[in-house]
Automatic annotation (TrEMBL):
MF annotations from Gene Ontology: acyltransferase activity
PANTHER family: BETA-KETOACYL SYNTHASE FAMILY PROTEIN-RELATED (PTHR43074:SF1), OMEGA-3 POLYUNSATURATED FATTY ACID SYNTHASE PFAB-RELATED (PTHR43074)
Signal peptide: none
CDD domains registered for this protein in UniProt: PKS
Pfam families: ketoacyl-synt, Ketoacyl-synt_C
Protein name: Polyketide synthase
InterPro entries per record: Ketoacyl_synth_C (IPR014031), Ketoacyl_synth_N (IPR014030), PKS-FAS_Synthase (IPR052568), PKS_Beta-ketoAc_synthase_dom (IPR020841), Thiolase-like (IPR016039)
Span of domain Ketosynthase family 3 (KS3): 1-251
Superkingdom: Bacteria
Record-linked SUPFAM superfamilies: Thiolase-like
Organism taxonomic ancestry: Bacteria, Bacillati, Actinomycetota, Actinomycetes, Micrococcales
Length: 354
């Protein structure tokens, strides 16, 4: 059974949440949630240029002098199962999704302008869904695309939610560009890899010495903070039209917490629908391809064959822990949004009406 959805740049995390709902309701036992960014490039660049979204130079999330986004292409998938099922069957549990929330604040000031209040509401609902306090997370993988308004709005909503106890912050957009619909799952995969390795990769982007907008933004490889509990992080994705998503995920290498969660999940499964929190969901596989959209079919083939591991080859595996050495992680594009930046006033001449 397949379901296709569109929530703009929040689509990936919306798919993950709907997958979790399907597992909780028992309508599926294993779900592959994925997102693909393989747009019509001339149309994409014309549209973003018309909006003034493209920056001057590379994407630089959370930098004081960042001026806009740089888009990328690719696809990302995660394999999800109920935690108790995964443990019973001996699956490797890469991470546990503890809670999530979806909020739409499209009635705000403008469909293309992010809303601080909607983001804050999304955080509150996600932590309530997980049964946690916001300060229980060690790190937040932010939406942070490098736009002056978007990055500052996100920081304002985080400050309102966390105050002086802000977790570490970061964004993968400087590594691989903004993958639009696939951005949320790509961010989730980065978090899963970071929790497993015990190292938070730096937020990179642009040849700039400008300071970060907040001191908690990770600018160098950083050991995961030591706590009494499991490593825990959150992932955000925000889309046009007010689509907001926030997801809480944890990693427990010892397996002790996972076993306890499985017992709680069994109790939850016996409750009537809507009477309690959703059961914990295990991430049992991840896969990603970052590059030209024409090769996204490679990932679909890997999915169909049951091999959801990241595709082999230096030019197909996203280097989520550092800047790509040769730039191929951004993939070839038909129009260079930086070198051939299209002023909005020129669009009628490039794409005249019939």
């Amino acid at each position: 059974r397949r379901l296709v959805l569109d929530a703009a740049c929040a689509s990936g995390l919306y798919a993950v949440r709907l997958a979790c709902d399907a597992l909780a309701l028992g309508t599926a036992d294993t779900v592959v949630a994925g997102a693909v960014c393989a747009p019509d490039l001339p149309l994409l660049h014309l549209s973003f240029s018309d909006l003034g979204a493209y920056g001057r130079g590379a994407s630089a999330p959370f930098r004081a002098d960042s001026t806009g986004i740089l888009t990328g292409e690719g696809a990302a998938v995660v394999v999800l199962r109920r935690l108790d099922d995964a443990l019973r069957d001996g699956d490797e549990v890469l991470a546990v999704i503890e809670g999530s929330a979806l909020v739409n604040d499209g009635a705000g000031q403008h469909p293309l302008v992010p809303g601080q209040a909607g983001q804050r509401t999304c955080y509150d609902l996600a932590y309530a869904d997980a049964g946690l306090a916001p300060t229980d997370v060690d790190y937040i993988e932010c939406h942070a695309t490098g736009t002056p308004v978007g990055d500052r709005t996100e920081l304002a909503s985080l400050t309102a939610a966390f105050g002086e106890r802000m977790p570490l912050l970061g964004s993968v957009k400087g590594n691989i560009g903004h993958l639009l619909t696939a951005a949320g799952i790509t961010s989730l995969i980065k978090v899963v890899l970071a929790m497993r390795s015990g190292t938070i990769p730096p937020t990179v982007g642009g040849a700039t010495d400008a300071p970060f907008l907040h001191p908690r933004v990770v600018g160098a490889p950083t050991p995961w903070p030591a706590t009494d509990g499991p490593r825990r992080a959150a992932v955000s994705a925000f889309g046009f039209g007010g689509a907001n998503a926030h997801l809480v995920v944890s990693h427990d290498p010892a397996g002790e917490r996972a076993a306890g969660a499985a017992e709680a999940t069994a109790d939850d499964a016996a409750r009537p629908t809507g009477s309690g929190r959703l059961p914990a969901v295990a991430v049992t596989g991840v896969g990603a391809y970052v590059g030209a959209g024409a090769r996204v079919a490679d990932l679909a083939h890997a999915e169909g064959s049951g091999d959801i591991a990241a595709l082999a080859g230096a030019d197909t595996v996203p280097r989520l822990h550092g800047t790509p050495a040769d730039g191929r992680a951004l993939g070839p594009i038909a129009l260079d949004p930086i070198g051939d930046r299209i002023p909005p006033r020129d669009i009628p001449h490039l794409n005249p009406a019939p």
